[in-house]
What does this fold into?
Amino acid sequence: MRALSIHSLLDLIKLFEQSVQRVVCDDGQILTGIPGWKLHQYEALDSERISEWCDCIGYAGYYPASYGNDHSDVDVFPDDESDRYLYRCPESFEFRSIEAAEIAIYHPREEQFLNAMADLLDIPLALRSGISQADIQGTLWRIGKVRLGHTLTDVWVARGLALSVDAVFHRLQQTDLSDLGIILTTGNSLPAIITVPRHYRVIPIKEVIDSTQNVARIDMERLRLLMTGANFTDESSMSPVHFDEYTNTLTISTNPTPWMIRGPKQAAAIKYMAEQAYKGRWELSAAEILKAVNGNKTHGICRRIPSLFNGNDDWHGYIMNIRRGVWGFIT
It folds into this structure.
């Protein structure tokens, strides 16, 4: 297997994190994985890389067909005359065909990914027994012990931590575990308002990748410093607002319910607002937010914030119209 570049590793980590999304397959079952039409977002992973790290576990029963400047989910069915699939275009109502790979559902091979993380940490094979048996199915694995200085420390990998905090923290509080450990998350940092149990540290894997090398490796010194509580500046860690771009989930300290945002335009707006909030800019003009969503487009653009969130009532609990033309988070 080819060595991973830094960009390949980052995309692989992102793919692993996002593979918890649910997809309805062609026989009505719900599977977790990445549909083929989303693979383009992992630019450093070509089809050969995807085959090295993922299995095709089924086919989606729908496809997001182009509809104006957006997309509309349409049913798909096999083409009897080829190995492709057909769908009815929501604009022209004509039948169009797509390759099976476009609706294939890919799921990363968990043990392969976890062993790769253990390799990067130089964890001996004899200490990796927890990889084959998840502590929380699909979410939390103990991948072994890593030597930081003179101490052997338990290392875990967590996927979808933002949505499974209660279950993960409950496991860490159980008495069969040591008081000290590292939770390497494939997502982002947790908001500063969340207190991690005992003496565990939650550290995003992407934060300890050595960016000075061409081939992916872990910066063990940085990992040691983060484990011992070294203070690295992170604008988002002290903010009452936290946006996880992997899961498109917004967390606000005063709101007990995280908001998982579905639409890409809505997510782009909230991501931009969160980035500005980290910089201390809590009030933004509608024009500025919409520019972040629309970019340089001139057709099919969003012109009003309420229209952007049309059909989704959840947003009323998270952002507000502070005054005419000015919007911000409800904190």
Q: What stands out?
A: The mean pLDDT is 88. The longest helix spans residues 264-278.
